[in-house]
Amino acid sequence: MSECKYKRVMLKLSGEAMAGKNGFGIDFEVAKRIATEIKELVDMGVQVGAVIGAGNIWRGREGGGMDRATADYMGMLATCINALALQNSLEDLGIETRVQSAIEMKEIAEPYIRRRAIRHLEKGRVVIFAAGSGNPYFTTDTAAALRAAEIEAECILLAKKVDGVYDKDPNKFDDAVKFDTLDYKQVIELGLTVMDSTAITLCMDNDIPIIVFALDEPGNIRKAATGEEYGTIIDNYSKEAAARDC
Ligand code: GTP
């Protein structure tokens, strides 16, 4: 089995990933498969933090006439449901897991405490960061970037439905071209919607590479973390190239 070059990673899963083909709710067969893949990383000695979205339960942006903040808070609560489901699936496989919530609900989950999260990771526990960043107007992508920076994760493993970043939607356009590498500024300048701009700039400012891959095939989380197979890497390669050219 390939070695993982990362000691600590942040896995970002979309809520839809938990829904499987149903597109809504939680498919526990799918949750089990994701948990099995996370176990592969844990068994390799990789420390794993995870952030899950909520699109399988609630989409804040589609909250009809609701005010944005309330719709976003509902989304944050939905991420807690997904976090508990994933925790359950991981624990079924014997993986110690802690859920930490950005919104205090201490009967259900630990509150988010950065130093405590790091201690859990050091002890080999998977830490699932629930309730986003605890603030409306921010996405779970931004929460993943923020927590990745806080716990000093070496990369974000960004699980998607498609196998990388394309210049246009590959589901709609046959001539869509995939990028193998991108730097953060290109993502923003080209208006690529892989992550929102707040999340991208947070990664840029903190030098956190983003590895984009498709979750569809079993084993892809490990393959992305080991560099065996992935779609696109977003990092500061231009900056590195510039430094080399000096
Ligand atoms: P160590 O002390 O480092 O071994 O960590 P630990 O998480 O095992 O210790 P602790 O005794 O704090 O936690 C035991 C269990 O209680 C774990 O499953 C925690 O997730 C859970 N727990 C701890 N604090 C809270 C809390 O504020 N709310 C909820 N709901 N659970 C908590």
Automatic annotation (TrEMBL):
Pfam families: AA_kinase. GO terms for molecular function: UMP kinase activity. Allosterically activated by GTP. Inhibited by UTP. It comes from the Bacteria. Its EC number is 2.7.4.22. It catalyses: UMP + ATP = UDP + ADP. Residues 20-25 are annotated as: Involved in allosteric activation by GTP. It is found in: Cytoplasm. InterPro entries: AceGlu_kinase-like_sf (IPR036393), Asp/Glu/Uridylate_kinase (IPR001048), Uridylate_kinase (IPR011817), Uridylate_kinase_bac (IPR015963). ATP binds at residues 12-15, 55, 59, 166, 169. UMP binds at residues 72, 133-140. Residues 7-213 form the Aspartate/glutamate/uridylate kinase domain. CDD domains: AAK_UMPK-PyrH-Ec. Pathway: Pyrimidine metabolism; CTP biosynthesis via de novo pathway; UDP from UMP (UMPK route): step 1/1. Keywords: Allosteric enzyme, ATP-binding, Cytoplasm, Kinase, Nucleotide-binding, Pyrimidine biosynthesis, Transferase. It is an enzyme of class 2 (transferase). Homohexamer. Catalyzes the reversible phosphorylation of UMP to UDP. Belongs to the UMP kinase family. This is Uridylate kinase. It comes from Youngiibacter multivorans.
